[in-house]
Structure formats: structure tokens, C-alpha cells
Amino acid sequence: MSAPFGSWPSPFTPASVAASSPRIDGARFVGDEVWWGESVPSESGRVTVRSSTGDQILPAPWSARSRVHEYGGGAWAADHDGTLYFVDAKDQRVRRMPRGGEPAVLTAPGPVHGGLRVQRGRLFAVREDLTVEPHRRAVVEIPVDGSAADDPGAVRVIVEGDGFFAHPAPSPDGHRVAWVEWDATRMPWQSARLAVTDGSLTTVVPTRAALQPEWTGDDELVVADDPSGRWALHRVRVDADGRYGTPEPVTAADVDADTGYGLWVLGNRWYQPLDDGRLVAVRTDGRDAVVVISSDGSARPLTVPPDGHVSVDDVAGTRILLSGSSSTSAPGLWLVDVDTGAVEAVAGGAPVDPAWMPTASPLVVDGLHGPVHAFAYPPAHPSAIAPEGELPPYVVLVHGGPTAHVTGATSSAMAFYTSRGIGVLDVNYGGSSGYGRAYRERLDGAWGVVDVDDVIAAARGLVEAELADPARIAIKGGSAGGWTVLSALVRGDTFAAGISRYGVADLRMLVEHSHDFEAHYIEGLVGPLPEAEDLYVERSPLTRADRIDVPVLLMQGGEDRVVPPAQSEAIRGALAARGVEHEYVLYPTEGHGFRAAETIVDALERELAFLGRVFGFRPAG
């Protein structure tokens, strides 16, 4: 069948994308079962907890979601007896629920909680209290008997301050607790400390950007750190006098990959110790790989489906639980035996048909600031072809953060475009994680410059390789990615259209409404205020919106507290004043990111229709 690019018939409807593979939110071994968190788009994105027996452990209307540091994470935990602990999305109080029973409140109203960890009947969490000034955060132990529900003083505070905390980790004997902490003026990937207390004395272990401490014995722990510019695992030993040694690399040689990335949420697990002393770890260099590290530091790769944003959620003996996305299957959760190599898909993880979902090809282009990494997804269809000589339209995707990264994973969201004859280029511009500290720090002081230069270089690389129609390249991104979209449109020439989801339009407005976690983030990306105010004005797309002369689709959540609707509405007003073609859609009940099925469906329908109008094709159906 011959048909123009963009008009190919596709089985990937907006509804099927919204209902596609679940988003996994942590997993645990519970007795002989596996439990995992899973979003339910058809229930407004509610996060439930399911069991491998087919049971839904956390029924509606309960939803496990944390707002700690605004991005949350670690909103549920479970013990081996089947007791569930979770943070309720509505009031952020922690609840305890025996299997089949009713949830009982464990914490008082007011503070929010996340990063839950249960060990031998003890429950630890990160607590954030925004009801007091200055705002306070802490690592706490919450009584599981409910005594703190009406008496906040019953909560044991392990450490408290106006900085930030993550990854509480009690030692096996319960005598020590380790955690990661960083100052309010820094981001955790810039500088974060490992701290340990025995209840009377707290020791700060010298680290550069610590992540995820885990105990391998009562007197030894492992932590990820990046003194060499790549996050790698290090051992810290405690001597007989309780003194902590200098962190020592687990492997003898430097590895050109990261075990860890930006600490945006509290539930990520980049490695886990096995009972026999070995370690299972994720290593990221663009894509993820999973390895088993022996006691001598040698590493053996594991052949597993997930290779994107992989989390080693739990271990039991030689079995591990891996969640993440994949370049060969749908996102999911897998049970893997590290010795036999046996792999079982627990949730999602169905293999994909390469005729419909091509494997992304890594693309590296030379940019003004160095190499630019991206993944290209060409149009793919088992029977449709385009007329001879026609080049496909492309959508260049810009991730948020901006300290985040994409991995070349396949998904129905990608196939929604590629199966219709629209190519996708997913860009890891300078500032992205996954390629080491130097690549990440390329964006320092240069947000709105390096990211824009890099996405333009990536798009032009497509054109130079004769992979894309130069007159039909759109750019799409959300949050910080939306900022880059609008900033790139201000530059002109390269992109024929832009799609911004809850994008940043004005830096001063962003700083004014910024929440605690990112209160000083922009200073590192642009400069300190008030000294750099002129730079904030100059770089903001809203300041130069008169240079945007191509169609723009703006989409926004009405309850977004990270990038409030005023940002998108300001750009809308500027475009309307000049008569530039645009569309603005407000989803009143959505926050920072679209979760409800009806929102996802509507947004995809609008994006496809928008691209069809701009690029001159009629989408099938």
C-alpha cells in the first residue's frame, strides 16, 4: 500500500496508548508473591498495589502517591507477612493495611511523606513539613502501632533540617541508619553527602554526589558516588571503634557508565546487594545494562529485556525484580534469576513486533558544544510505503528536567507516530544524565543556549543524513523540555511547528513560583539573582515571543504547581496578539504531567490533528 507519510493506518490509537503497558512504581517480594505499584490511567492515574496472584492489594479509592520534594517516590512498602504501608495521595498521611483489612492512619495531618522503607517491623520515611517556616525535612521512624496518628511527638526523628534527605537505610542489626543529604542551595547530582548515625553520634562520610546507601553487613555499606565523573559503587567499612573508612571503589577499573542518575524521585534503586556478597547493578551509558559484580570486582552482564530507566527493586536469594522500559518489549516488571538466567515477565513486558516498533538507532552529531546524543525512530509499518522521493516528517522530542535522560526504549507512545509514517528523534541534549558529570554540567549557566543549540544540531543531523523532510520537522517537549521547545522556536529556521506541554516561558515567573526542591536550581542553570536578572529576561521565550512565527500547540494542567498555567497562558497571549496560529488546551484536574486516560487520549488526538494540519497530511481514521 502506498500512502503519504503521516497518513498510514495504525492500530496504535490514542485510547490504546493510554491503556498500554502499566507504569510500574516499585516492586517487592512478599512471602511467595511479588507485589508492585501500578498506575491506573482509567482511574485518573491512581496508583494501586497488585500481587502476582492476581489480587489488587490496594483497592479504590486509595492511591499510593507521595508529594515529598514535589516529585515524590517511595510511596509504599510492604513486609514479608503481607502488611502494606502507603502514603495516601489525598492527605499524604502514612497508613498501615494488613492484607484484606482496612487502612489505619499512622501519622498526624500536616507533613507529607515518601521514600518508605520497612525492615523487621520498623518503618522509616522521609518527611517534609511545609506548614512551618522555614520548611523542615527529616528522616524519621514511624511507629507502626498508630501511636503517632494523634501524637506527632511519637515519631522518632533521626535527622532534621532545612536541607533535603533521601534513601534512609537501617543496618541489618538496626543499630545504625544511613541516608543521603544535601543543602537547600544545591541539587543532589551536584553535591550530596552520605551520613550515618548510631543514635548518639552522626558521621558524615566524604562523598561528592552520594546515592542510595545499602548495608551489606552490620559494619559495611555500599554507596554510589561519582568522584571520577561517573557514578560507581563504593564500599565504606566501619572499624571496631565505630570509625568510618574512606569510600573505596567496588571495581578495580573505572567504567565508562553511571550507576545512578538524577535523584528526582525517592523510589529509584540502581543496585542491590545479594545475600552472598555479590551486587546487582545498573550501568547507564545512554542505554542501561544490568551486571552482577563479584567480590573481586569483576562484572558479568545479565541478558535481560529492560534496558531503559531500570530499577533493581528487590532481591531474594538469587532472584531479583527489575522494572523499566525496553528496546525489544513493552515496559514492565521482570523476575530474573541471576545464576540460571531465567527471566519471567510479571507485569507488562510483552515482546514487540519489530515490523511495527523499530529499534531506536543511536545518533551522535557534532554540536557547537561537543557531541550530541540522540535516538532515532524511523517510520515503520509492515505494509505501508510512502511515494517515491518523499521524505518523512519528524517530531524532535525534548525531555524534561533538564537533568533527565532518554534511553531509546520502545513504547506504544512512539509507535503512535512511527506507525503512521512520522519519525521521532529523542534527544539527550547537553545537561542530560546518563553520559557522566561533564556532559551533565555542559548546561551549567547555559540553559536556553546549550539545550537549544543541541536540539537544533540533532535536527539538522537528520536532514544532512537525508532521513527527514527539512520543511516538516516539529519539536515537542514538556516542562523544561517545553522551555527548550519555545526557546528553539524563538531561534527560527529549523522547526516548522512546536508542541509545548506545561512548558516554562518566563524564568522570573518560574523562580517566583518555584517549590523548595528546585528553589536554587535555576541559579546553577542560568545565574544568581538579582545579579543575572538581565540574563533571565533575555533568555526567556516570553521576552522574544515576537520571533515565533510557526504554529504552536500549548497544553497545560490546571493544578500544576511546578509550572503553573500562567506560563502557558502568557505565551498564548503573546501569540494571539500577533495572530500566530496556536491552540491552547487546559486540563483543569491535571498536575505536572498528564495521568488520566481521558487526558492522554485527548492530548494525542490534538497533537496528531495539529501535525496533520501543519504538515499537510490527513491522518488515517
List keywords for this structure.
621 residues; alpha+beta; Rossmann fold; eight-stranded mixed β-sheet; four-stranded antiparallel β-sheet; 35 strands
CATH architecture of the domain at 361-615: 3-Layer(aba) Sandwich
Overall shape: it is: globular
Q: Give the name of the CATH superfamily of the domain at 361-615.
A: Alpha/Beta hydrolase fold, catalytic domain
Structural category: alpha+beta
Instruction: Tell me the β content.
Output: 25-35%
Q: How would you sum up the major sheet?
A: 8 strands, mixed
Q: What is the helix content?
A: 10-25%
Q: Just give the CATH class of the domain at 361-615.
A: Alpha Beta
Q: Summarize model confidence as the mean pLDDT.
A: 95
List unreliable stretches of 5+ residues.
Answer: none
CATH fold naming of the domain at 361-615: Rossmann fold
How large, in whole angstroms, is the Cα Rg?
24 Å
Give a count of the beta strands, DSSP E runs of length 2 or more.
35
Describe the structure.
- With about 625 residues, this protein is an alpha+beta fold.
- Among the domains are: about 270-350; about 360-615, 3-Layer(aba) Sandwich (Rossmann fold), CATH 3.40.50.1820.
- About 15% of the residues lie in helices and about 35% in strands.
- It has 10 helices and 35 strands.
- Helix 4 packs across helix 5.
- The radius of gyration is 24 Å and the shape is globular.
- The chain starts with 13 loop residues before the first helix and ends in a 6-residue tail after the last helix.
- The mean pLDDT is about 95.
